[in-house]
Design a protein that fits this description.
By secondary structure, the protein is of the alpha/beta class. It has a single domain (32-171), classed as Lipoprotein like domain (Double Stranded RNA Binding Domain, 2-Layer Sandwich), CATH 3.30.160. It is built from four helices and five strands; from the N terminus they run αβαββββαα. Strands 2-1-3-4-5 form a five-stranded mixed β-sheet. It is flat and about 60 Å long. The chain starts with a helix and ends in a 5-residue tail after the last helix. One of its GO terms (cellular component) is transporter complex. One of its GO terms (biological process) is lipopolysaccharide transport.
């Protein structure tokens, strides 16, 4: 009983220390507000995993994502690109390490097609090692990394949409 109580208090002290030093979970930012409540999400591949996840994230933040243009702002996903580059080879000349990169380019325009946010580049990279004896498991790992990279890109996009400069610019628009 005493050992459990000791472990409980140690855990409590660690949690209080993390909280007092300003530690926050990834993806959480108090006061992260996007200045608009409705947007049109425009993309050449509207049903991609990235766009579905982006739409879900925006909806969870209380933003109505329209499928047709009458909205105060348009978020244009100009391109999405996933690349896999060989970074090292094994003894028999087989690939052992890759650099995975995911790039998203987007811009934000208002109803009159004035650019509110110039084209922005988001680049997310991960290193990926592969072994010949676990090829199928490594391919699943690559898919998991790709999904994680997309989530990271979405979080970076949301952070840019909630920038104070964009908030001021949006509030100064005459016809919101």
């Amino acid at each position: 009983m005493n050992i459990r109580l000791y472990h409980f208090f140690c855990l409590l002290i660690i949690l209080l220390t993390l909280n007092s030093c300003g530690f926050q979970l990834r993806g959480y930012r108090e006061g992260q507000t996007i200045p608009f409540h409705t947007l049109y999400l425009q993309s050449s591949s509207p049903y991609s995993n990235f766009n579905k996840a982006l739409r879900q994230t925006l909806n969870s933040l209380g933003i109505d994502t329209r499928v047709s243009p009458p909205a105060p702002v348009t978020l244009q996903i100009l391109s999405q690109n996933f690349n896999r580059t060989i970074t090292s080879l094994g003894n028999a000349g087989q690939t052992t390490t890759y650099l995975l990169s995911y790039t998203v380019i987007f811009q934000l325009t208002d109803r009159q097609h004035h650019i509110l946010l110039l084209p922005q580049h988001i680049l997310v990279t991960r290193n990926f090692s592969i072994t010949s004896n676990q090829l199928s498991g490594d391919l699943n790992t690559q898919n998991d990394l790709q999904e994680d990279m997309q989530r990271d890109a979405i979080q970076q996009l949301i952070t840019r949409l909630s920038s104070p400069a964009l908030y001021r610019k949006f509030c100064q628009m005459p016809s919101r």
